[in-house]
Design brief:
TSUP/Inactive_protease-like; Probable membrane transporter protein; 2 strands; cell membrane; mainly alpha
Length: about 270
């Protein structure tokens, strides 16, 4: 029974995660906690081991998705590595801080976090671009498959600061940073949705490697579960990328918002039970 649950969790989390650029950690972590701590089906699960195990799985999801998105030219490699300058140290610190979380605090804080980001995405088109991001030396151009032209820009100093905070949440919640990085690329830096997703998956790959080191040292990884999740996640990520290529930009944003809102509400409800 447990292995079947892990296969389904791996497939669905990676498929949804790679489709909207969030990695799947926001699905893996609460699901492992639910089946482990609430239903007692999975042994040895705590908030810390769920987060640590998720970080390992996100390495595989990130790698699988990144390779596919690179082939489709949907990854901004230069700016992606710029974001990593802040994400990597943030992820290490977050991994250390995660050991102080309890099940109720995890559900509450993570749920609120997801709802806030979801609300930000809802009003994305009403938020005017920040002038500092419109300087000519930072501007890049992209045309999606529908022929829509996008202009976006990344200011190096602000990118590092923002990505550090994102890295902190990646290590703290075991989410790879994508749950916040993708919305911020859309909202703040005005990335084209398809490029935001592809670039986010590249950063999830590298940030998950970093945060995993911290969790392995702290003994927060259940290796038996990881093996099953790794295999199913690799397949799920490939499916998610294929679906991404077939849908338009607005659909991706809508899917991301709905997934984050639904999971945020669910986690807050769980925190009071």
């Amino acid at each position: 029974m447990s292995w079947l649950i892990l296969i389904i969790v791996g497939l669905l989390s990676a498929m949804i995660g790679s489709l909207v650029g969030i990695g799947g950690g926001i699905i893996i972590v609460p699901t492992l906690i639910y089946f482990g701590m609430n239903l007692q089906i999975l042994d040895g699960v705590t908030p810390q081991t769920a987060i640590g195990t998720s970080s390992i799985i996100l390495i595989v999801t990130g790698l699988s998705s990144t390779l596919s998105y690179l082939k489709a030219k949907q990854v901004d490699v230069k700016n992606g590595f710029l974001f990593l300058i802040g994400i990597i140290p943030g992820a290490l610190i977050g991994a250390y801080l995660s050991q102080f979380l309890t099940i109720h605090s995890f559900n509450l804080y993570f749920g609120i976090f997801l709802i806030i980001v979801s609300m930000m995405l809802m009003f994305r088109d009403r938020i005017p671009p920040i002038r500092v991001f419109q300087k000519p030396q930072y501007m890049k151009h992209f045309t999606d498959k529908e022929g829509i032209n996008y202009e976006y820009a990344v200011v190096p100093s602000l990118a590092v600061v923002i990505s550090f905070v994102i890295g902190l949440t990646a290590g703290l919640f075991g989410i790879g940073g994508g749950a916040l990085m993708t919305p911020l690329m859309l909202l703040v830096f005005r990335f084209p949705p398809h490029v935001a997703v592809g670039t986010s998956m590249m950063m999830i790959f590298f940030s998950s490697i970093t945060s995993s080191v911290g969790h392995i040292v702290l003994g927060h990884v259940i290796w038996g579960y990881s093996l099953i999740l790794i295999i199913s996640s690799w397949i799920g990520a490939k499916i998610g990328v294929k679906i991404n290529k077939r849908v338009n930009s607005q659909t991706i944003v809508t899917l991301l918002r709905v997934v984050m809102l639904a999971l945020g509400v669910y986690l807050i409800m769980r925190s009071f039970l």
